[in-house]
Amino acid sequence: MPAVTLRAVPLLSWRILSHEKGRTALATAGVFIAILLVFIELGFFIAVPQGGMLVYDHLRFDLLLCSKNYAFQAEPWQFPRARLTDAAKVAGVARATPLYFAGTKWQEPAGGDRIDAFIIGFDPAARPFAVTGIEQQTVALARRDTMLVDDATRPIFGPIAAGTEVLLDNHKITIGGDYTLGTGFLGMAVAVMDEANFFRLFAPRPADIVNLGLITLASGADPDKTAAALRQALPDDVQIFTRAELKNHEDKYWTTRTSVGLIFGSGLVISFVVGIMVLYQTLATQITRHLPQFATLKAIGYSDFYLAAVVMIEAAMIVLVAFFPAAGAALAAYAQIRSATLLPVVLTAPEFAAVLVITLAMSAASAFLSLSNLRRADPADVF
Amino acid sequence: MAAIEARRLLPGTKRGVPLAWRNLVANKRRLLRSSAGIAFAALLMMVELGFEQGFFDASLSAVQALDGDLFVLSAYKYRFGTRDPIAHAELDTVRGVAGVASAAPLYASWQDFFWTSPLDSKPYLVRVFGFDPDEPPVFSLSGIKDGQALLKTGDTVLVDSHARAFLGMDTDKKSTDLSGQPVQIVGTFSLGPDFMSDGTVAMSDRLFAKLLPGNRAPVAELPIETIVVKLRPDATLSTVQRALRKALPNTSSVMTKAQIVDLEEQFQAKLSSAGPIFWLGAMVGFVVGMLISYQVIYTDLSDQLPQYATLKAIGYKTSYLVRSVLVQAGLSGLAGYVPAWLLCIGAYRIVGAIALLPLHMTLRLTILTLGLTLGMCLLAAALAVRRVISADPAEIF
Amino acid sequence: MAYAFPVMAPAVRAESIDFHYGQNESRNQVLFDISLEIPPSQLVVMTGPSGSGKTTLLTLIGGLRTMQQGRLELLGQDVTRLSAAALVQVRREIGFIFQTHNLFESLTAVENVRMALQLGTWPPAEMEDRAHQILDQLGLGHRLGYKPRSLSGGQRQRVAIARALANYPQLVLADEPTAALDMHTTRNVVSRLKDMTVESSSAILMVTHDHRIIELADRLVHMVDGRIVSDVVLSDALRICEFLKGVDIFKALTPAELTNIAEKVTRRHFEAGETVIRQGDEGDELFLISEGEVEIDREGHEVARLGPAEFFGELSLISGEPRNATVVATAPLDTYVLGKEAFRTAVEQSNSFREQLRRVYFQRH
Question: CA-CA distance, C244 to C255, in Å (whole number)?
Answer without folding.
Answer: 10
